Design the sequence.
C-alpha cells in the first residue's frame, strides 16, 4: 500500500484502530482528517460529513468498505499476487449503501421495476410500503399519501433525478438539491464537481529542537505550557466576550490544573475527531518564498455572510468581525440569493445563533444550495486557528438545531484536556440537555477526553470511582447524529490499561463518602 493515503468515517474506535494498524503495516499512511492528499476513504455509514464532502468535491477518492483492507492483508499474508484495482472494484462501497428506499407515483410497471432493480443492485434495501424505517422516498410527483406521510415523518424526499445522478457520480448526492418541488432544470445544480484536479500537497514545518533544548529542566517546560494555556484561554475568553450576547461577560473557566503537564493545542472538532479544519483554497506551496504579511488576503475575504436571528447589538459585533477581516455582509436573503458566484464571492455563509436548538430556533431563510451553515462560534474558531474552517467538517462550528438529545437529560459530563475548545464544549453539552461538571466528582456520569490522551489523573480518578471514560468522538458523533451513542464503542483505558467498568449511570449513594478529587476548575 505504498503511496496510499487512508481516511475513515463512521467506524467504531476499535475497528478504526485495527484497520489503521493493518494498513500502516502494509505501507499506507493514515489521516484523521479528509486532507487533499487522501486517496482512499473507508466508510461504515454514508450519511456523514466526510462522505457528503467526498461525493460533492472529491471524485478522485476511492470509497471502500472496511473489508478491503482485510482482503489485501489476506492476499499479502498468503504471498499471492495482489491486483489492487480488482480489489478496489470488488470492495467499492455501493452507491446507496444500507439506505432504505421507497418509491411512489411511477405508474409504468416497467419503469418502476427498473428503478427497483437499480435500488437493490446498488446496496440499498427496497421497501414497497412506507414505514419509519425508510430513509428516502423517490417520488414521480410531489403529491399523494406517501409523499404527505414522508413529510410528516421527516423522511428525505427526492426526485428520480437524484437516483440517476447519484449513480452517475457513484455516490449518494445531497438530497436537498433534488427536492421534487424544485424545477427540474434546477435540481442537482452544484451537486458534485465534474472536473476535479488534486491540489499540490502542502508542506508541513517540523519544530526543530537542539540537544540543549531537549534537556531543559521540567520546571521551565511546565512554565511554558502553563503560560501557553493561559494565553490560549485569554484569547478565547476575549473573543467570546466580544461576541457574547448583549456584551455580557462570559463565565470564565480557568486553566485545568490537572492538565498543565500534558496540555495540547486542540484543533477544530469534527464528528470524527481529532479533526483539523478544511482550509480554503488560497494557500501557497510550502516551497514558495515567504509572503509579506500585508499582501495576504483577509481571513474572510471572498465570503458573503448573511446574519440571521441575532439581536441588533450582537449582529453589529459579528458584522464588524467579518468586515474587518475583508468579508462582506449581505443585508437580506434576496441579496444573498442574487449575489454572483465566482471570483468575487467564493462562498456564501448563513450565520445563525449558537444557542438555537429545536426548542428555541426561529424561522430559517431559504438560502442558495452550497451555502455554509455556521454560528458565531465559527468566527471565533476561524480567528483562533488563523484559518478558514469548513463548518460542515467541524461540529462545534455548526448550528445544532436538532438538540437536545434524548438520553442526555440525566447525564452529568466532565472533560479534561480540551484546551481552548472547552468553553464551546461546555455550552454545547448544556444545549444537548446534559449537565456540565466543571469539576470531576464521584457523582459525574461520564468523563470525556481527547482520543490522544492515554493517561491523566482524572482518568485514574474516574477508574477508581467507576465513572465511564470515553473519547471525545463519542460527544461529537452524538451531536452529529442527534442521539446518544453507545459508550462501549468509545471507551478509553486508564493507567492500568484495563477497560473501565461501565456500571449503570445511577450510582449508589456510598460514592458520596469517598475522598474528593483535587479541585479542578475545568
Sequence:
Amino acid at each position: 500500500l505504498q503511496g496510499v493515503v487512508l481516511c475513515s468515517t463512521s467506524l467504531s474506535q476499535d475497528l478504526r484502530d485495527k484497520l489503521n494498524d493493518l494498513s500502516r503495516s502494509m505501507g499506507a499512511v493514515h489521516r484523521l482528517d479528509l486532507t487533499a492528499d487522501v486517496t482512499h476513504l473507508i466508510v461504515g455509514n454514508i450519511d456523514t460529513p466526510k462522505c457528503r464532502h467526498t461525493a460533492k468535491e472529491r471524485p478522485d477518492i476511492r470509497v471502500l468498505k472496511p473489508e478491503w483492507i482485510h482482503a489485501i492483508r489476506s492476499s499479502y499474508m498468503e504471498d499471492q499476487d495482489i491486483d489492487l484495482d480488482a480489489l478496489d472494484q470488488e470492495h467499492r462501497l455501493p452507491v446507496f449503501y444500507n439506505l432504505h428506499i421507497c418509491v411512489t407515483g411511477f405508474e409504468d410497471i416497467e419503469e418502476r421495476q427498473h428503478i427497483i432493480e437499480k435500488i437493490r443492485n446498488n446496496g440499498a434495501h427496497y421497501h414497497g410500503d412506507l414505514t419509519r424505517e425508510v430513509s428516502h422516498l423517490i417520488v414521480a410527483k410531489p403529491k399523494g399519501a406517501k409523499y404527505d406521510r414522508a413529510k410528516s415523518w421527516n423522511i428525505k424526499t427526492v426526485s428520480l433525478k437524484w437516483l440517476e445522478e447519484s449513480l452517475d457520480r457513484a455516490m449518494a448526492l445531497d438530497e436537498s438539491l433534488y427536492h421534487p418541488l424544485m424545477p427540474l432544470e434546477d435540481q442537482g445544480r452544484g451537486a458534485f464537481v465534474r472536473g476535479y484536479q488534486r491540489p499540490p500537497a502542502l508542506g508541513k514545518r517540523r519544530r526543530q529542537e537542539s540537544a540543549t533544548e531537549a534537556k531543559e529542566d521540567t520546571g521551565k517546560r511546565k512554565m511554558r505550557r502553563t503560560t501557553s494555556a493561559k494565553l490560549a484561554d485569554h484569547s478565547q475568553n476575549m473573543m467570546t466576550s466580544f461576541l457574547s450576547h448583549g456584551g455580557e461577560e462570559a463565565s470564565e473557566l480557568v486553566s485545568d490544573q490537572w492538565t498543565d503537564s500534558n496540555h495540547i493545542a486542540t484543533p477544530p472538532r469534527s464528528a470524527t475527531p481529532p479533526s483539523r479544519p478544511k482550509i480554503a483554497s488560497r494557500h501557497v506551496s510550502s516551497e514558495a518564498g515567504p509572503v509579506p504579511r500585508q499582501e495576504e488576503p483577509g481571513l474572510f475575504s471572498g465570503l458573503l455572510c448573511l446574519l440571521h436571528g441575532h439581536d441588533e447589538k450582537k449582529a453589529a459585533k459579528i458584522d464588524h468581525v467579518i468586515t474587518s477581516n475583508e468579508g462582506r455582509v449581505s443585508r437580506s436573503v434576496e441579496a444573498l440569493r442574487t449575489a454572483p458566484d465566482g471570483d468575487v464571492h467564493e462562498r456564501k455563509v448563513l450565520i445563525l445563533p449558537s444557542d438555537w436548538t429545536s426548542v428555541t430556533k426561529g424561522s430559517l431563510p431559504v438560502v442558495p444550495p452550497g451555502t455554509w451553515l455556521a454560528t458565531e462560534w465559527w468566527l471565533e474558531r476561524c480567528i483562533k486557528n488563523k484559518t478558514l474552517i469548513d463548518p460542515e467538517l467541524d461540529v462545534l462550528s455548526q448550528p445544532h438545531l436538532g438538540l437536545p438529545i434524548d438520553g442526555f437529560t440525566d447525564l452529568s459530563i466532565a472533560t479534561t484536556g480540551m484546551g481552548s475548545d472547552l468553553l464551546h464544549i461546555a455550552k454545547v453539552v448544556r444545549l444537548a440537555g446534559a449537565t456540565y461538571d466543571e469539576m470531576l466528582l464521584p457523582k459525574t456520569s461520564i468523563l470525556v477526553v481527547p482520543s490522544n490522551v492515554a493517561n491523566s489523573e482524572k482518568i485514574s480518578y474516574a477508574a477508581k470511582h467507576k465513572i465511564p471514560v470515553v473519547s471525545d468522538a463519542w460527544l461529537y458523533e452524538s451531536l452529529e447524529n442527534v442521539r446518544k451513542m453507545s459508550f462501549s464503542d468509545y471507551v478509553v483505558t486508564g493507567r492500568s490499561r484495563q477497560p473501565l467498568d461501565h456500571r449503570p449511570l445511577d450510582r449508589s449513594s456510598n460514592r458520596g463518602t469517598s475522598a474528593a478529587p483535587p479541585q479542578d476548575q475545568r
User: Anything to note?
Assistant: The chain is about 30% helix and 10% strand.
